[in-house]
Amino acid sequence: MESLNQAWYLFQATLSRYQDFQYVFMLIPFVLFFELPLYFINWMSAFRYLIKNAIEAPLTLHYFPRVTCAITCYAEGKAVQSTVISLLEQIYPGHIEIIAMVDGVKKNQATYHALVELAPLVSQYPKRSLVIIPKFQRGGRVSSLNAGLSRAQGEIFLALDGDTSFDNQMIHYAAAHFRNPDMVAVTGPMRVRNARKTIMTRLQNLEYMLTMQVGKLGFAKLGVINNVPGAFGIFRKSFLQQVGGWNTGTAEDLDLTLRIKQYYKRYPHLQIEFEPGAVSHTDVPESLIDFLKQRLRWDGDLWYIYSNKHKYGISASMMGWKNLIFLLWYGILFQIVMPFSIVLYTIYIAVKLPLYAFLLSMTLVYAFYFCLITIQYILYLIFITDRRKEDCNAIFILPIYPIFQFISRVWSALAILNQIINKGHLDSAMAPLWVLQKGKQ
Fold this sequence. Notes:
The protein has helices at about 1-20, 25-55, 80-90, 110-115, 120, 140-150, 170-175, 200-220, 235-245, 250-260, 290-310, 315-350, 355-385, 390, 400-420, 435-440; strands spanning about 65-75, 95-105, 130-135, 155-160, 165, 185, 190, 230-235, 270-275, 280. Helix 8 packs across helix 13 (about 355-385). By secondary structure, it is an alpha/beta fold. It is globular and about 70 Å long. Helix content is about 55%, strand content about 10%. Helix 3 links the parallel strand 1 (about 65-75) and strand 2 (about 95-105). A seven-stranded mixed β-sheet has the order 3-2-1-4-8-6-9, sandwiched between helices. The chain has a three-stranded mixed β-sheet with strand order 5-10-7.
């Protein structure tokens, strides 16, 4: 009888523990049905491109149109010289016109004088020119880009940040795509220039590898690229003028990308491409505080764009079914819904489970994402990167990357809440308040 009682107590204890751990599996359906397929489809598209690129002979045609590189400058100081020099040294036989828009020049004299100092150097390069536009009243990034667009002489227009530099074949690779008359925009890999500075820059370096390079490569080959980055966007100038340039407000890059996609139903031949050979290098926030400030703006702007500026444009009748499904899946579900799901799930199991079960569940979630990221990183090193030795350094940051992802998603939920409650897009360093308020109207 005593042995039966012991067996019964053991069964009850086992059942109780199973009931504790059942919450661990609550995340599995969400991950399996919504997140893993996104990674799988993206990688399959990337592999399809790599196989096709390896089999097909490269097409070499003489196509070297005049190019305009518009650099938005604000408080870069001497650093802007690296950007200009990297454009002067491009291996490209066509003419490269560099237009530097210095926003709020009265308070930004260091950047302005750094550009003026380059005039003698520019004259030494054939088919290169530098135009400096001093904007006395600060109007923000959008006004700078539109000022550059109004002065541009090139057939191809590059919208660039003043703290970004480029590989010397960037324009050669990017411009080649515009032989296709249906090509309206191109972007390329963004690499982290200050990757070795701090732990935060190393984490962002790995993030850029897997999102800016692998992610955009796969999505572009499916014809559903999510965004042409503001720091590095390449456009057909005539099409930019057709859509009216950039709109006032924050997240101007996502706004413009969505406006381009809203032509797709009427003009299904239009294309946005990702060129792996058109490489840029940018600086990322070096401290946790600066990183959180940046993502507060980035992630909050997602809600502003989707729920405000484009709430009527997100439809199959405007962008076609393929781009609509992708936007709902990646833009809404993955970027908006999932951060809140993760926060609520974590709070729920923290309240519902004993401490040991909660810690075990979080350990299992960590293990899952660590394996997923490790597999992606290995595939990236084997098939994607052209700087394998340099990118191998990221292996040391892999163990803490899932924690970085978790913090980023929790912060993303808070950023979206800040936008909903406090209209966070009106508190942005991208433009003065009066400009952002005008955009709201």
